[in-house]
Amino acid sequence: MSGLLRIRENISIYIKYNVSMHTIQSLTSSSHLSKGYTFALISALFLSSTAPFIRHLTQTYAIPPLVLALWRNFFVLVTLLPILTLFRPALVRVSRPSLLYLAGYGLLLAGFNSLWTTSVALNGAAVATVLAYCSAAFAALLGWLILKERLDKAKILSIGLALIGCIFVAEAYTPTAWQSNLHGLSIGVLTGLAYAIYSLMGRSAAQRGLNPWTTLLYIFGFATFFLLIINLLPFRLLPGTASNPAELFWLKDSLSGWGIVFLLAIGPTIGGFGFYNVSLSYLPSSIVNLVATLEPAFTALIAYIFLNERLSLAQITGGLLIVSGVVFLRIYEDRITPSSIQAIKRIETRTNQTPPSG
Q: How far apart are CA 272 and CA 263, in angstroms?
């Protein structure tokens, strides 16, 4: 009888222990997810402030867009380099082949930053951000054309939504838009294309095994160098550049102007990227990228409050179409990837089990 009582007590203790452990794990998992979503939201909020900062600087100080792009990249470089050198020196060292690759990537970033800054100056923060999100459609098309990726019905639908959305956001269905802001709309669409190529290069850098912080450091360093050369070209060959070397210091002794440029570098760029990386340690990348699609909404809200920008009903509808296309594509890719991996594993298994011919 005492033996039965002892067994019953042991079972009771075992059940209580497992229930307690399950409760602790659930609370830990919930806390883990909460932190992940918090960091992802902070990242989206930081990134969404990029365009309003640029718009404020180009409106208030009339700084040429490519001069602003130069200083933004420079402040990212001089902030990130000492931090990584002191705390993660291994991330500063790269091989020569990687250095050449990062130089090309930096040249692309210089082009993208030039287009992006000019688009914000011409189109406003909200419209420029939404037009840049057409990059999802361009990325799918470029993946199909260059990387031979599959272009199925889901991607075609996403591309269609993005393109229709771009037409609504740019109000390209009205002759007035083409007559009054053809240059701005063209720059906005080209920004989306450049962002798509930039994203594909980011994927390539990850496949090469380059640490994201290493990539960020070097591409902003090279972009600073290339933008300096572009701004020093004679006869102001490109619009938005400095007309002479003295104009590189456009802000002169304006401490508030220089302070805002510095905040643009460390906040949206380093802060947004940093919180994005931290959120990836708590959440799957698919979830983090879905949270990142809140950026246009946050940008529109910030621009509405601080810059008095207003979107028409057609532009809001277009923005929703673009973001819907991006969200749909990311959910679809997240679902199809595991099944694709399983299919590859099944093919590999059959291949390994098939006896050699001959």
A: 12
Residue 10 domain-assigned? no
Q: Which domain holds residue 75?
A: 38-337
pLDDT per position as a tens digit, 229-240: 999 988 777 888
Q: What is the DSSP string of 245-265?
A: GGGGGTTTT-HHHHHHHHHHI
pTM of the model: 0.79
Q: How many beta carbons lie within 10 A of that of residue 213, not counting itself?
A: 18
In the Cβ-directed half-sphere of 94, how many Cα atoms lie within 13 Å? 22
* Cβ–Cβ < 8 Å for 147, 202: no
* C-alpha dihedral sign at 74, 79, 83, 85: positive
Token pair in block for residue 129: 């951000």
CB 73 within 8 A of CB 113: yes
Which pair of tokens denotes residue 286? 């698919």
Is residue 350 domain-resident?
no
CA 93 to chain centre: 24
> If you ran DSSP here, which 8-state letter would residue 235 be given?
G
Residue 16 within a domain: no
Q: How many domains does the chain have?
A: 1
- In the prediction, which pLDDT does 323 show? 83
Beta-carbon-side half-sphere exposure of residue 278 (alpha carbons within 13 Å): 18
| Packed helices 125-132 and 175-207: angle between N→C axes, nearest 10 degrees | 50
| pLDDT < 50 stretches in the chain | 1-5, 7-8, 11-28, 339-341, 343-358
